[in-house]
Amino acid sequence: MKYDVEDRFFPHYADAEVGPTLSSFSSSPPLTRRIALVGCFRPRRCGIATYTADIFDHLTCEHPDIGIDVYALRAHPADPRDTDVACVIEAEDPASYRAAAHAINRSGVDAVWIQHEFGIFGGIAGAMLLDLVERIAAPLIVTFHTVLASPSAEQRRIMDGLVARASRLMVMSDYGRQVLIETYGASADAVTLIEHGTPVRPFCEKSPLRTELGIGDRPILSTFGLLGPGKGLETAIRALPAIAERHPDILYRIVGATHPNLIAAEGEAYRESLQALAEDLGVGANIGWDNRFLETEELLDQIELCDIYLAPYPNLAQVTSGTLSYAVALGRAVISTPFVHARELLSNDVGLLVPQGDSMAIADAVLGLLESADKRRALQRRAYERGRRTAWPQIVDQCAALLDMAIMEPPRISATRRTAPSLSGVADMCDDVGILQHGRGVVPDRDHGYCIDDVARALILVNSLGGQIASEWESRAICFAAFIQHAWNPDEGAFRNFMSYDRRWLEDRGSDDSNGRAIWALGHCAARARSNELAGWARDWFDRSACAVAEVRSPRAVAFAMLGAAEVLGRFPSDAAASEILGCGAAYLEKLRSHSARDDWDWFEPTLAYDNARLSEALLRAGTLLKVAAWKEAGLKTLGWLCEQQTAATGCFRPVGSEGFGRSHDLLPFDQQPLEAWATIAACGAALAARHDERWRRYAEAAWYWFFGANDRGEALASTETGRCHDGLTPRGINRNVGAESTLAFHLAYQAMDALIWPRGARKDVGFVHADMQT
């Protein structure tokens, strides 16, 4: 979708490098939506391929404003590729799924629609599909062609993963819908029932094919589809002697090639066993074998040829049968076992149900219809009328509506988003100890207590507030400083991190990163505190605690300490401790980069994690303050590379998600964290100051607008009115919890935008005196 933010900043997806552009469809109406359709596809011969091709053809015909990129599963690399296919996924190649996900993300589609069936995707129970699913950023729709009430452990894992990831789930039976909700915990609102589509044809009582095939007026039974034990053909063949006794001219046409998986395992042994059974029963001459896979139009002609369609399937849990849907839509008299799809489709006397495995019941039902033309015609009429509800034009209208439910509306973001957020959102998390870490919804969660990470950020925020602030916030700065001071453990020469709500420290030494953040906050306070007394305290503690990171090798801990040192050195240019931290840290980061960078990976590590932009920012600030051009250039170059990785095809900000933290050269889009937006804005602000280039402003604005819905789900995480920010963006939308890290990141991102990115005079609230500061 196209974001209603400055067009120069959020280009239309048609400008993406992968996939068709608007010019490709110049003869069609302008595209309003574009999707990636994933599944088997023609010329592959299976039910899923037929269904996916039907969806493509009918949706393209009925809704030409929807662009469709087909990502086709291919069983063998040598198999042919249809011209309508945008990308092929090799079913047994994990790298092919990852490459397809990358192509989908770069194409900027509005949604991804997967046709799921066990047995078509590679890996145990089709686990390779998850390699694609976890990497795609667009909203996901999954059609389940099979819904197992009693899955294996691996099948359950795959189903749970898809249900948790998808924005919308589609099934073709009410039973499947109930199983998804009751067994897999799917939200009822997320599951949509859309029946299997069927062709639109006038009712044909006597097919002209009878004359062409020389069948004449013989009564014809038929079963269609890929042959295998799941068809129950043995049961139907055993019914033939009783039928032939009264109708010797009966012809049972079994139409369809043997399933390719069965061919690979045993050749035609199964078909030959059925033929032998028919000969033993003396009905070999009553069976016509058509060992072909039929394209849809010929399949429909063949179904019209029969008087009675048999579906003797033994698997009563089967939730979908395309040929059963076709038979009903074409007005055939249907006799079926009561499998799930048949029970629902044939209800209200649309067809006849017989017990599973009961050949005599099949024979009795067939004889009853053959010997009562009025009964047979009435059944055919009810079937044909029922089929009007599943005609493809109606079904694809429902599919288009499903796409609309999954596809986000373009956010409308105005300049009012430059208004300073209310500080009440921060105040709600604070008490006389510090700031509580987490929230359950918007209510602070006391069970998880406090951490120095958040207190450090809170102290940075208070010292970043522009203009005159209320005495309440001056007092909070002292409270946050006291927490940091109390966290120091002289025995360890380091800060503790976690404190329980009852004020007990939960460790002797915090992580390296938490120590780096504490030093950063002290350096920032020393440089920016309004009170000389507080600034002096902070500088003393900065010097005292610098030893906590002296031997640290965590890149982020080093970068955090460097940012604190940069603040001190900017205010006190001769500070030796700050110079040493900044110089040694920059040399270390540059060494890391030289070891990890490669042609397509200009970074300090083989992975991306959290607070990524801080590494580039620290190196850039060091190069600027210490006047080392190589460090400055490396900071700018790595930041530019990072920002490119964090920019979606739509132009929106897409930080690496927490699911991808620590995965070598592998970027996953969820869950996206507010911390990354703040880090990117601050780093781009430093880059803009170091070298005026408008791209830094654009990157920063993308990260800022991410808070307000210019993101992969079109949902606002933050509110300037409440000053709160939700904890992240997930595949299903925002994480509704409101924690200190997220809320502080939002406020600090605003302060960075105001101080570093927006031109002076562009903000809406000159002076920034918050009304809520007096409360």
TrEMBL record:
Domain of life (superkingdom): Bacteria
Coiled coil: none
Residue ranges of every copy of the Glycosyl transferase family domain listed in the record: 212-386
Keyword vocabulary terms for this entry: Transferase
Keyword Transferase annotated: yes
A Pfam family reported for this protein in Swiss-Prot or TrEMBL: Glycos_transf_1
GO biological process: carbohydrate metabolic process
Entry-linked InterPro entries: 6-hairpin_glycosidase_sf, Glyco_trans_1
GO MF annotation list: glycosyltransferase activity
Stated name of the protein: Glycosyltransferase involved in cell wall bisynthesis
Organism lineage string: Bacteria, Pseudomonadati, Pseudomonadota, Alphaproteobacteria, Sphingomonadales
